[in-house]
Design goal:
Blueprint lengths: L3 H23 L5 H15 L1 H8 L5 H10 L4 H22 L3 H20 L5 H8 L1
Helix pairs in contact: 1-2, 2-3, 5-6
């Protein structure tokens, strides 16, 4: 566990990442997964209590457990992330962003985040079944 200023810095970054991940749940243009994983990493090095809180969270917990145990993301999380990025990101590119460079930047960002998500290993189906029982 980190101590002193490093611990406090990790806690601040962890809570900022949780906040951004939470926004990503309701604003699909924000990538929830990387922010939640960053928060889990920060808390694992700064506070057992906050790490446990995050891992046992109904929304974020399964994602973190999958990542910590197998560096994987479930198929359902991948699918919902990609679909919401396509719908919301596509709508933003078509109807919200006026600048050509803004549209290109948004498309490249979405493509990069989508590629990162898709290229992570998928949580094995047997692990998903055990969690639901």
């Amino acid at each position: 566990m980190a101590t002193g200023p490093l611990r406090w810095s990790l806690l601040v970054v962890g809570f900022l990442a949780v906040g951004l991940g939470g926004l990503g749940v309701v604003l699909p243009i924000l990538p929830t997964t990387p922010f939640v994983l960053l928060a889990a990493l920060c808390f694992s090095r700064s506070s057992r209590r906050f790490h446990k809180w995050l891992v046992t969270n109904r929304v974020f917990g399964p994602l973190i457990v999958d990542w910590e145990q197998g560096r994987s993301i479930s198929a359902g999380v991948k699918t919902s992330a990609i679909i919401s990025m396509i719908i919301v990101g596509g709508a933003s590119i078509v109807w919200v962003i006026d600048s050509l460079w803004g549209k290109i930047a948004m498309a490249l960002t979405l493509a990069a985040v989508g590629a990162w998500i898709v290229t992570r290993p998928t949580t094995p189906r047997s692990d998903q079944l055990k969690k639901s029982l």
